[in-house]
Amino acid sequence: MRFMQPYIHDALFSGAVGSDWIGRVQAVTSSRECVPMIIDGVKYMLEFSSPVGLHVPGNFDEMICKKQDGGKFLPMLEHRHISFWFDIERFGEDGIKPICEADHAMFLVHAVHFSGMLYQAFLVYFRTHPQVVQYFFMADVAFATFVKEKVMMPVQPMTASLDITLLSEIAPPHYGFSVCWSGGAHHG
After folding, report:
1. Looking at the chain, which runs of residues are DSSP E strands?
2. pLDDT at 56
3. pTM for the whole structure
4. DSSP 19-58
5. How far lies 167's CA from each of 31, 56, 84, in Å?
6. Which residues pair with 31 in a beta bridge?
7. What confidence tens digit (pLDDT) does each residue in 80-133 have?
């Protein structure tokens, strides 16, 4: 759980219109950017963190992921860690929570709509930072399965514009994928 300053919340959602909305990429700290969104009237934030090793010399080991066979997965230098936050309200003492702490029914009931909005928010970030092609996230099995089956797999026509490759050798609770435009062309 994290807390958000009211002025950051206000700035993130200042352009929000309607019960379904996706904002633009905005910095929330010196190493984190996010895409705010509203899905069915509820505020969320898809956050992209730069690896610590890019900002603080000597922290390279923090970028290494454990593989399922016990080995080490070395990511590209330019990658991002994704966090998905919910309960993004201006006031309240609970702060914001990672989605994996949510009731799983929240994202399964409206899976197609929810996954489509999540994909569109990711696309907003990727269009802004096309040089970043590796992404990692931590999740429980239920949310990781949802992301793999409903967001990243080409079950939606909109995923056809991207080639997404799961980095299946990474050991849970970490997950990863690489992404590029289909056919190598940039569509931004």
Report:
1. 21-22, 26-29, 32-39, 42-49, 65-66, 72-73, 79-86, 97-98, 134-138, 162-166, 174-181
2. 61
3. 0.82
4. SSEE---EEEETTEEEEEEEETTEEEEEEEE--GGGTSTT
5. 24, 26, 19
6. none
7. 999 888 765 644 544 555 555 555 565 555 567 788 888 899 999 999 999 999
The amino acid present at 91, given as its one-letter code, is F
Whether the predicted pLDDT of 64 surpasses 70: yes
The answer to whether 175 and 159 are in contact (CB under 8 A) is: no
For 126-158, write each residue's pLDDT tens digit: 999 999 999 999 888 888 888 888 777 654 555
Cα 41 to Cα 34, 78, 87, 114, 130, distances in angstroms = 18, 34, 11, 12, 29
The count of residues in the chain is 188
Q: Is 142 helix (H, G, I), strand (E, B) or coil?
A: helix
Around Cβ 85, how many Cβ atoms within 10 Å?
A: 22
